[in-house]
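Example record used in the benchmark description.
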Amino acid sequence: MFWILISTGALFEVIGDVYFRKQTYILGTLFYGLGTALWAVSLRFETLSKAVILFGVLNALAASIAGIVLFHETLTPTQWLGVCLGLGCLATLS
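Model output (C-alpha cells):
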C-alpha cells in the first residue's frame, strides 16, 4: 500500500509541475494537492525518514522523464549522474 500511495503521489505532483509549466495553474494546484494528500496518507505505512527520501527521488525521476519526453529537454552529465544515484537510492531503500 505504501508504494502505491507514494508513487501515485509523486506522479500527481509531476503532473502538477507539467500543468504549471503550461501555465494551467488551477489544474496544477489540483494535482499538487492530490499528490500531497497521498504523500500524507503514505506516512501511515512507513517511517518519515524513508518516505521523504523515496518521495523526493521518485518525484525527481518522474520530473526528469517528463522533461525529456514532453518538453524535449536534455540532461547534463551531472544530471544523468543524479538520476543514476537516485535509482541506486531506490534500490537500497526498498
